[in-house]
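This follows on from our talk about sequence and fold. Go ahead and set the record down below:
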Amino acid sequence: MTPNTILPSPYLHPTSIDTKMGNLICKVVDHIKNTICDMAPPIVQYVVKHPIKAVCHVASATMMLGSSVIAPLLLGLAGFTSAGVAAGSLAAAVQSSMGTVVAGGAFATLQSAAMGGYGAAIVAGAMSGAAVAAEVVPIVVSVVEQIDCDSDPEETDE
């Protein structure tokens, strides 16, 4: 055998299992693509017909993700870190302007949330409350619109 001879390897040639797995993955990807393409037009129509509701739904979803994903990022950007307040940050500027930090106050709660303490539950609760509020806004708007549509400006009580 010469040194340039390539030996057959079971890893270089697809087996029937590899082919079946590849076909299955292709079918799943095609199904997901077709589902998204089928869903897009009704979603766009809904957004165009109900822009306030659509914005509130997006805000609600964002708030629900917020407690675990967005809140830590925003806290970090503001300067609240797991090691304390970052020097030169917005949080440091606020802390220096307020003097003594009150235990249990807003600043202490945000710092606690960044450190994974009691504030994390409070921030998560606030984010969840904001998500609920974002879902209530479209209901209130619908009720107000219905009241406006039901009232006839021509009719007056005299």
Observations:
- Helices lie at 16-49, 51-78, 90-98, 106-114, 118-150.
